[in-house]
Amino acid sequence: MKIKKVLVSQPKPTSEKSPYYDIAEKYGVKIDFRPFIKVESLSAKEFRQQKVSILDHTAVIFTSRHAIDHFFGLCAELRVTIPETMKYFCTSETIALYIQKYVQYRKRKVFFGATGKFADLLPSIIKHNTEKYLVPMSDVHNDEIRNALDAKKIQHTEVVMYRTVSNDFTPEESFDYDMLLFFSPAGINSLMKNFPEFDQQEIAIGCFGPATAKAVKDAGLRLDLEAPTVEAPSMTAALDMFIRERNKD
Questions:
Q1: In the structure, what pLDDT confidence band is assigned to residue 142 with cuts at 50, 70 and 90?
Q2: What domain range is 226 assigned to?
Q3: What angle do CA 11, 13, 14 make, to 5 degrees?
Q4: Is residue 116 scored above 90 in pLDDT?
Q5: Under a CB-based contact definition with an 8 Å cutoff, are residues 93 and 125 in contact?
Q6: Structural domain tally of the chain?
Q7: Residues 30 and 66 in one domain
Q8: Which GO terms describe its biological process (predicted)?
Q9: Average of pLDDT values for 198-208?
């Protein structure tokens, strides 16, 4: 079956130069953007149940912009004033610059890694090994950061500040796609929650990353496209190749 309509389970690109728009024009397909999941903050009450005092810490480790939004949002809700001496350690420069949304950016108190991987931020943390680190996290996370900090005997506290939940479909929303693209296991969980009787038939499913690929298969679905690969390092490159092959006469 030819691909005519694709659903990308991510927010609509902010730039008109997105490769998705190029693909839509190139092959005459319709591409919709609709996240299957959304991130919401814990309530102040839920946060307090973890019995963590933010001001007992002298530094914060941020791994995403979500973490920054929910950290400062909860601080405001809890009426916690962050001292200017607080240090911020971010896994990438993009995340570090995002802090400017909430506090004045000073190079002496903001540190970041070069690649976005926590391992590249770790040397900066070790250099400041007398700090007491707070690590805001999602309700779903792995133990990479905790294990790395424990191994170096760094004082730290992990605390859940936000959660990933299903972004439910309304009865008015049509769901008539030839292809679905997913980027996290939570997206697959949301698909099955929203459509418990989902019958894949000819609908192609593509995903990004091995964890999402596993979730597709664990749900008993057929995986038609997996990225990244050597030939297609991005989802858009993989999608371009897939549609070209599927829609050829």
A1: confident
A2: 5-36+170-246
A3: 115
A4: no
A5: no
A6: 2
A7: no
A8: uroporphyrinogen III biosynthetic process
A9: 96
